[in-house]
Design goal:
This protein is α/β, with parallel strands linked by helices. The protein has twelve helices and 15 strands. It has helices at about 15-25, 40-55, 95-115, 155-170, 195-205, 225-235, 255-270, 270-275, 285-295, 305-315, 330-335, 345-355, and strands at about 5-10, 30-35, 60-65, 80-85, 120-130, 135-140, 175-180, 180-185, 210-215, 220, 220-225, 245, 255, 285, 325.
């Protein structure tokens, strides 16, 4: 029997991937929320989604919803059976006020709507592994109590959102999906959404950063949009147990920072323009040294190298906080969990980035927006 699934932030990267997977993997009808300032923007987003969802668009309704408004979902039907809450601001350098307003209070507003839906059997919150903050060691698939500190306001806000749902809305059929860093659309390494991972590799490629902040053995938990959206659809099904899930490779399958850097520069070395620059591989630096380097850039605001260091700083702290994210519950409930065990992913992504020059269009300046 088909249901009715609500996906918030459906025009975002993962929101859209998840909507596509719901349409292809289930018989559900979808209500997709998008943020639109006016009718023209709403019509543009509806047309954009219709072109992407193609033959499935008759099963889709697109509605406006700004989660910073009071009761943003008041006009949405209460007959939904599943909610996938994807809407969020994910920038590492966002302010605490923005993070609270969008990621915490916005989540509360979705939950307030959810408790009025009598047929709801699943509420999936898209969270992140870094909601674990600055704690180290083994991290289990459970709600994390206590404040271990956070490297940035994004991490804090996602932890707060998890706790808010668990404590204030115990009646919700809640599943928290902690996501790995998404670095590609699929196993081929194709990239259509750039983030801090890709921007940092770009800085290395052009020689704007020559140090690696972090411990060489720190594990990186990376994934594709294909694997992540597949897992999210599985978690949204009524026969999947609720709870916390790490959408990630097992610790022994996650690539170390040292191995990732070696892979990156092995790929870079095959590019003629990179080889001609004769750049040395970056050296690992300790936490205190990196903090001093970033502090020293405060008087060099116009320097590309200074901007590069500052762009890395909001997430560098995590590279000194090694964690082992257990994915036991995901493996036990979903055969597709093996899709996260892909150590070749870094190589595929780097090759794609070098070949496309990070999606640069003809005529673009080579170093434009390197530290964005």
């Amino acid at each position: 029997m088909s249901g009715l699934a609500l996906v918030t932030g459906a025009d975002g990267y993962l929101g859209l991937h998840t909507a596509q997977r719901l349409l292809t993997d289930t018989d559900d009808r979808l209500v997709l929320t998008v943020r639109a300032a006016d009718r023209a923007e709403l019509d543009a987003k509806r047309n954009q989604l219709a072109s992407v969802l193609d033959t499935h668009k008759k099963r889709v309704e697109v509605v406006p919803a700004d989660l910073t408004d009071d009761a943003p979902l008041s006009g949405v039907t209460r007959t939904v059976t599943a909610i996938v809450h994807a809407a969020a601001r994910t920038a590492f350098n966002q302010s605490r006020d923005d993070a609270r307003r969008i990621n915490v209070e916005g989540t509360a507003r979705v939950a307030e709507y959810a408790v009025t839906c009598p047929a709801l059997d699943r509420f999936v919150l898209m969270s992140t592994l870094v909601s674990a903050g600055c704690r180290t060691g083994e991290v289990r698939e459970t709600i994390l109590a206590g404040d271990a500190g956070f490297a940035n306001h994004y991490e804090w806000s996602k932890s707060e959102a998890e706790l808010l749902l668990a404590e204030r809305f115990p009646e919700l059929p809640l599943t928290v999906a902690r996501l790995s860093t998404i670095v590609a659309d699929d196993d081929h390494g194709h990239v259509t959404q750039y983030n801090a991972f890709h921007n940092t590799l770009k800085l290395f490629f052009y020689g704007l950063i020559t140090v690696v902040p972090g411990l060489p053995d720190t594990r990186l938990y990376l994934a594709t949009a294909a694997a992540t959206s597949g897992a999210l659809v599985h978690l949204a099904q009524p026969d999947t147990p609720t709870g916390v899930y790490h959408l990630a490779p097992a610790p022994h399958e996650a690539i170390s920072l040292r191995e990732a850097i070696d892979t990156v520069f092995d790929v870079f070395a095959t590019d003629d323009s990179f080889a001609r620059r004769r750049l040395l591989r970056p050296e690992f630096c300790d936490q205190e040294t990196f903090r001093h380097l970033v502090a020293a850039t405060e008087t060099l605001s116009a320097s590309p190298a200074a901007g590069a260091l500052r762009s890395v700083a909001p997430f560098a702290e995590q590279m000194f906080r090694p964690k082992q994210f257990l994915n036991t519950r995901l493996v036990q409930t979903w055969p597709g969990a093996t899709a996260f065990a892909n150590r070749a992913l870094v190589h595929a992504v780097c090759q794609s980035l070098v070949n496309s020059r990070w999606g640069r269009k003809p005529g673009d300046r080579p170093h434009a927006s390197l530290a964005s």
